[in-house]
DNA sequence: GATATTGTGGACATATTAAGTCTGTAATTA
DNA sequence: TAATTACAGACTTAATATGTCCACAATATC
C-alpha cells in the first residue's frame, strides 16, 4: 500500500518544473540528475506525463519538457493517476460480491484520501516553496 | 497502491468469524474453504492475527480460531496493520528531505484514510450483515 | 541538406515483493 | 497412544516494479 517510486519521481519532477522554469524547456538529463535517477528511466515517466496532457515535450536541440499552461491547477491526484492508473485499493477483494461491506468501507475511506489529493494543486505547493526548501 | 490479497483474506476471515461463531473455535480448513484459498496459506495469515492479539487459537482436536473478547471494537485499520505493517504511503519519497511538501501532502491525505478505517469497527460491519448478505 | 541534439517506443533484463507450497514439529483432546 | 489441529521455516512460483539498451523520429543549428 505504497506509492511507487515512479510516482514519486513524477511528482518531484512536476514540482521542480513548476518552481524553477515552468515556461522553459528542461532536458531529461537535468531532471534526472536532480533526482539521482537514470535519464532513460525518467524519460519513460515523463512520456506518461506528456500523454496524460500535463507536460509538453519538444524534440531536438534545446528541446526538453515544460509544464502546460494552467499547470497551477493540476492536482497531486492527477499526477498519481497518470502514473499508477486508477485501480481502487480494494480492487483485489476476492468474493465478487458487489455489496461487500469490507470493500465499501475501504472505498469510503479511500475517497477521503483521493478527495484531499484532488484538492492539493501544484500551484499551492509551488507557492509554499521558499529558497531554502528542497524539492 | 492496493491492499494485498492477504489483507483481504484477513478482513474477510475476521468478519466471517464475527458473524458466524464469534465464541466457537473454527478450523482453518473451513475458513479457507469459504474463501477459496489454500489452508496452509490462510494459516500463515491467521497466525499474524493471533500474534497481534485479535484472534485466539487452540491446537488439537476440536481446536481452531476464534475472536478475542471485545472483538466488536477491533477496527479495520487494526487488521490491516497486523498484516501489512505500518509503512506510510510516501515512505519511498526519495529526496530525504524531512520538509518535503509532497510527502507532507500525501501523509495528510493518508491520515484521512487511516482515520476513517480506524473508526470502522468489526462490530459495526457485523451488525450490518443480513442473512442474504455474503461476507 | 548534414549533423548534432533531444524525445519516443519497444524489447529486454533485473530486482523486489507477493503469493503459495511443503514438511516437520508442537500442542491438545479423545 | 492416536488423531487432530496450529505453528514455523525453508522453499518455490508468480506478479510487478524498476531499470537498461538500442533503433528511430523530430527538431534546431550550421
Overall description:
Two copies of one chain form a homodimer. The first copy, chain A, has a domain at 5-83 and 121-128: Winged helix-like DNA-binding domain superfamily/Winged helix DNA-binding domain (Arc Repressor Mutant, subunit A). The first copy, chain A, is 53% helix and 6% strand. The first copy, chain A, is built from six helices and two strands, in the order H-H-H-E-E-H-H-H. At the A-B interface, helix 1, helix 4 and helix 5 of A face helix 1, helix 4 and helix 5 of B. Chain A binds a DNA duplex (30 and 30 nucleotides) through helix 3.
Question: What attributes does this structure have?
Answer:
homodimer, 135 residues, mainly alpha, Arc Repressor Mutant, subunit A, two-stranded antiparallel sheet, 53% helix, 6% strand, DNA-binding
> How much is the average pLDDT of chain A?
93
Remind me, CATH topology of the domain at 5-83 and 121-128 in chain A?
A: Arc Repressor Mutant, subunit A
Distance linking N and C termini of chain A: 24 Å
Instruction: Find the structural class of chain A using helix and strand composition.
Output: mainly alpha
Q: Characterize the overall form of chain A.
A: elongated
Q: Into which percentage range does the β-strand content of chain A fall?
A: 5-15%
User: Which strand order spans the largest sheet of chain A, edge to edge or round the barrel?
Assistant: 1-2
**SSE succession of chain A:** HHHEEHHH
Low-confidence segments of chain A, given as residue ranges, are: none
Q: Radius of gyration of chain A, Cα only, in angstroms?
A: 17 Å
The fourth-level CATH homologous superfamily of the domain at 5-83 and 121-128 in chain A is: Winged helix-like DNA-binding domain superfamily/Winged helix DNA-binding domain
| Level-1 CATH class name of the domain at 5-83 and 121-128 in chain A | Mainly Alpha
- Count of DSSP H/I helices of chain A: 6
